[in-house]
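Justification of computing resources. Each target in the renewal requires a structure prediction run like the one illustrated here; the chain below, 143 residues long, is used simply to show the kind of job we budget for.
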Amino acid sequence: MFTRSFAFAFTALTAAVCVATAAPALASEGVSNAETAKAYRMDAARHIYAAYPTKIYKGKLPPLVHAIVVTEVAVDNTGKVQSINMIRVPTHAPDVTARVRELIRHASPMPAPSRLGATRFTEIWLVDKSGRFQLDTLTEGQL
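Resulting structure tokens:
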């Protein structure tokens, strides 16, 4: 009985370690050394991609995307999202706007901007009809 309990505990601990080490380096470190808002935008985009790997549109986007959303996100010095300002929204697809806002909220905290302190960055979300997206910062372009 003791051996079975020990084996189960060891297996659970091993699984937890594997899950913890499988996280991307930036997400596990949780710190950005960016010195400008533009450089921080790149770290935030990588963090969002790591948070939603199955929702990223792979390859070049079609010539016409379903929706474009432009956001301005404010984060505090720990990376916690403080506010999301929607600068441009698709009037034909209000559900996309709500979804982008929710994706940003659930990706919080972003990497802590260690050199910048609290900061703001803009991002352009390019959303396909399938709901998958690319961020302009990391886009693979269009056909």
